[in-house]
Amino acid sequence: MRLVLLGPPGSGKGTQSVRLAGTLAIAHISTGDILRAAVREGTELGRKAESFIRQGGLVPDEVIVGMVEERIARADCSRGFIFDGFPRTIPQAEMLESRLGAGPRAGNGGAIDRVLYMDLDEESCVRRLAGRWTCPADGRTYNQFSQPPKAAGKCDRCGGALVQREDDRVGTVKNRLKVYLEQTRPLIGFYEKAGRLNRVDASRTPDQVFAELLNAVRQGAKA
Ligand code: AP5
Ligand code: MG
Q1: Ligand 1 proximity of 52 Cβ (cutoff 6 Å)
Q2: Does pLDDT of 103 surpass 50?
Q3: Annotated active-site positions, please?
Q4: Ligand 1, closest atom to CA 165?
Q5: Does the beta carbon of 101 sit less than 6 angstroms from any atom of ligand 1?
């Protein structure tokens, strides 16, 4: 099964995709997590990506495409995967079609089984990002308002110290939202045309959103 979680920054893609990947036993692929790890480790990929991430812009498509090709070739993707934060532009979606959609489905959105669009208003996105804390060791995400960790500042699972993302500063968040509207939102039409898109109300509680997402995936699998 191949899924895409699409939505603005802060809509809950990371929170929900980790849970969906666990329940469906498929790989979780967050391009943002891969890039941030590369920046931390100082690799060539990290050096290419760092300034774009810091400013809230998109890393160039050619960098992302090579990185994703390498990731989906790994053994843990053999049962399927859920993309979190990819594709982000029409060229990225087209690349996915040409790499995975070979055959009669190629080029029409058919490379992906379901695209789950997490619909959330801008004000809520900004509020959620202001309260977000993440575990750098296992990527688990918390929120000081809605999902606080059991012990302040510590990951529930591994006990590691939680950090705030550098690109969650208010000015950078505004730019990320602008980039989302201009470059990523057009993907809604791309996948709607392919009949693969489900819109999910991301303003509800995490459990409610999860139930709706799972339902959309299961209905899609029957269709
Ligand atoms: P990326 O890491 O993908 O960030 P993003 O898309 O901006 O999204 P976020 O991770 O900020 O939010 P989210 O939707 O995952 O929300 P979360 O679950 O954390 O990308 C970062 C950067 O990397 C980009 O700006 C770009 O530079 C680069 N990049 C990445 N992929 C790229 C690509 N494909 N092409 C080019 N460049 C790329 O939730 C947010 C908060 O809300 C958390 O605190 C959470 O606990 C809380 N929360 C979640 N759900 C709920 C709920 N239902 N109710 C209340 N609170 C909730
Ligand atoms: Mg995320």
Answers
A1: yes
A2: no
A3: 13, 88, 132, 165, 176
A4: 11
A5: no
Query: What is the rounded average pLDDT of the residues 191-205?
Result: 95
Q: Where are the domains of the chain?
A: 2-222
Instruction: Quick: pLDDT tens for 141-196.
Output: 899 999 999 999 999 999 999 999 999 988 999 999 999 999 999 999 999 998 99
Which tokens go with 119?
A: 């619909």
Q: Residue 53 CA: which ligand 1 atom is closest?
A: 27
Q: What is the pLDDT of residue 222?
A: 62
Fold for 2-222, please state it. Rossmann fold (3.40.50)
Residues with Cβ within 8 Å of 159's Cβ and at least 6 positions away in sequence, in order, are: none
Q: Is the CB of 88 under 6 A from ligand 1?
A: yes
Amino acid identity, position 98 = S
The pTM score is: 0.94
Closest atom, ligand 1, to C-alpha of 31: 31
Where b means 16+ CB within 10 Å and e means fewer, 64-91 reads bbebbeebbeeeeeeebbbbbbbbbbee
Nearest residue CA, atom 20 of ligand 1?
A: 32
Which residue in 129, 206, 137, 138 sits closest to 165, CA to CA?
Answer: 129
CB 203 within 8 A of CB 121: yes
